[in-house]
Every structure is written in structure tokens, then in C-alpha cells.
Amino acid sequence: MTDVTDAPTPSLLSLVPKAPAKQSMKDFKSDQEVRWCPGCGDYAVLAAVQGFMPELGLAKENIVFVSGIGCSSRFPYYMNTYGMHSIHGRAPAIATGLATSRRDLSVWVVTGDGDALSIGGNHLIHALRRNVNLKILLFNNRIYGLTKGQYSPTSELGKITKSTPMGSLDAPFNPVSLALGAEASFVARTVDSDRKHLTEVLRQAADHQGTALIEIYQNCNIFNDGAFEVLKDQEQAQEAVIRLEHGRPIRFGADGHKGVVRDQATGDLEVVAVTPENEARILVHDAHAASPTTAFALSRLADPDTLHQTPIGVFRDIDRPVYDTLMTDQLDTAVDQRGKGDLTTLLTGNDTWTVVG
């Protein structure tokens, strides 16, 4: 069995100035009227984030929320921190520049399934692979809400929407699988209505060094209501939700009667009814495993149509070099070796040429 005992690593949050006094949720509420559709899941996420922020103990002037375009991207207006409502899909790129140039800031990205995975897909995967010190909240409602109900990159196959009246032909992205494939160092999934779970995942992401991606299943009650009902209804959720906890056997259902094992023939993961004969085979979750292979396999358990057997929690949380730190080290080395640089030498060096007209 894998040894899942790990010593804690000091957080990069130590670089961010602390708050001068104890803060409360009220300190992180802006004076802007919150304007989402009544009943939108974004309200629950906003409340959870505002309630969690005081735990960081950071000066709110050193916290920044950067968003792209979409319903979720109103988020910076409602946080009493610095923020930027940026351009479609480019929030990770803008946040990368900010995080690498200002290591005294705690930088958070708020995006949606359309913003992050369609026009912004390229920016997202490169932020993940670089391991920039960002916390990315990806709101996934499996629909385009702001533009009034078109199918999105996470909509299920056959989804009937205004833009796919005969059903979507596109196979949907699984954001957790995508992030793991990009070698993200922290990947998690949670649900908007489960505030306790959402807050705990935020807590672990904030402590992580590098890029942390949290997919948040978020209900759009106007254009895709009930998309995650199986994971929210108390009776159904007991049999549908697999709660991942580092160092614990992966069991779920009433009294843990279901469990996840590795198929001995194919190596794939499968859900089985737990018996005395197979109980020893139940997988123990190791979020700190160096290889993303098992975490990826866990991300594939959920049926994209019914969402039965959907894992939530932290899939992966590993230490690897942080881009911001590596870049700072290179800049320090360059200054030490060459002083502050010589622009004239650069412009008149061998890599120039004369254009003769």
C-alpha cells in the first residue's frame, strides 16, 4: 500500500502582507449590488469565498480577483479587494503576469466553463503546466448563461439548446481530466451548494504552492436548472457522490457499501459492491502521488450524462517548482552576473541586421 504520510510545505502566502487586524466576512463584501438571477448558484460560491477570505489573514489590498467574461466574471465587483474584469478567456494570462511580477499578492482567477474551456482553453492549460502561483475557480454550469443558453464545452452529448436544437454533437470536456492532463499540481472538484466542502477545498487550494484549479459544479436555474440535482438531492447523492479524502479508502453509498478498486486485468478503476472478499482491494486515495495516472482514472468514473459515481474533493496535490519562484531566481542571477543590463550592447549585437532599401 502507498505511504500517504507527507510533511507540510511552507506556503508562499508568507510572502503576502498580513492583515493589520482581524477581519470578518463583512470586510470582503463590496458596496456593489450583487446582480445574478435569483436562485443562481453563484450566490452560494460568493458567500463561501467571502466567508473564507478572513481565514487567510491577508491584507485585502494584497488580494486580487481576475475574471474573464461570463456570469461568474462579475465576481471581482462583489469582492472588497483589488480586481479586474478582463477579456474573454484571457484571465489566466493576465493573472500570470500579475502573479509573476507581484509576488506580494494573492491572485485568484474566476472563470466559467465557456470562458475557460472554449476561447480560453489555451491560456488555461499553459497556466496549469507552468505552475504559476494562481488559484483558479472554474464555475461549471454546463451551459452558456450570459449569452442566454447555448451549449458549452462541458454540455453533455445530445444536449438540446438554442444553438443545438437537434442535440449537441460535441463530446464534452471533463475539466478535471483536462487539468490533470496538463500536469496541474493541484486539482479539485466541489459543488456550489455544499458550503462546508467548498470551504475546505478552498482552504487546501490556498495553502498550495503553484496553480490550483477548483472545478465548482454550479447550477444555472434559468438555462440549465437541475443539471447537478443527482449530486445535491440527499438520497441520490449518497449513492452518486464519491468523496475523496487523502489517506482514506475510496468508499461511498449507504454505510460505504460501494468502493473503488483497480481491475486486475486492465488496470482501470471500477466501482464494486464491497464484500469481505474484495475489501482489501479498495483503493486508498493518495492525492500526493507523483504520477497523475490514478487521479486521472478517478476523474473518468463519472458518467457524463447521468453524473452517477462522481468524485468530488482533491484529486491531486503535489509539490513541484513554482514558475514565479523560478523566474525570480533567473532575474536575480541575471542581475548578479550582468548588472542591470546594457541596452546599447543588446541593440548593436550580432543578432541585428541592416535593411537596405
Defining traits:
single chain, 357 residues, Rossmann fold, three-stranded antiparallel sheet, 11 strands, disordered N terminus, 2-oxoacid:Fd_oxidoreductase
**Tally of DSSP β-strands:** 11
Task: Note the run of SSEs as H and E.
Answer: HEHEHEHHEHEHEHHEEEEHEHH
- Kindly provide the name of the CATH class of the domain at 12-227 and 321-347: Alpha Beta
Mean pLDDT: 92
- Helical content, roughly? 25-40%
Q: How does this structure look, described?
A:
The protein is of the alpha/beta class. It has a domain at 12-227 and 321-347: Thiamin diphosphate (ThDP)-binding fold, Pyr/PP domains (Rossmann fold, 3-Layer(aba) Sandwich), CATH 3.40.50. The chain is 30% helix and 16% strand. The protein is built from 12 helices and 11 strands. The protein has helices at 42-56, 75-78, 91-101, 113-119, 121-130, 175-181, 195-207, 229-232, 234-240, 293-299, 323-338, 343-347, and strands at 63-67, 82-85, 106-112, 135-140, 186-191, 212-217, 241-244, 251-252, 258-262, 269-273, 310-317. The protein has an 8-stranded mixed β-sheet with strand order 2-1-3-4-6-5-11-7, sandwiched between helices. A 3-stranded antiparallel β-sheet has the order 8-9-10. Helix 7 links the parallel strand 5 and strand 6 (212-217). The longest helix is centred in the last third of the chain and has 16 residues, at 323-338. It is globular. Mean pLDDT is 92; it is low at 1-5. Pfam families: TPP_enzyme_C. This is 2-oxoglutarate ferredoxin oxidoreductase subunit beta.
